Amino acid sequence: MNFVVKSKSSGNEYNVHVYTTEDGPVITCDCPAGENGQYCKHRFALISGDESEVVEADAPVSEIAKLVAGSRLEATIDAMHKQEAVVKKAQADLKAIKKTVASAMLGRL
Asked: pTM higher than 0.85, yes or no?
């Protein structure tokens, strides 16, 4: 499957290719992040079913979710979401601790 997506931030158009191997789905993008093997918002948007950036497509975006379902890619995305939740909680905890430290520095504990 091939998709042309338009970046919300730069307005540039990028090509996203989706295919399967015996190891599962492969999704590539020719944006700078995708070309460098980094996290690419265009691929992730399509995996999530977001069609808002799609300019051209030779298949429905919903087909990507079907390829990803039950794959190792889906498991790693789930692990990423879980870790993001852990980080978000840790950031909130740290913010609260910093407030407590600030109060303690002023003798307000």
From this structure: no
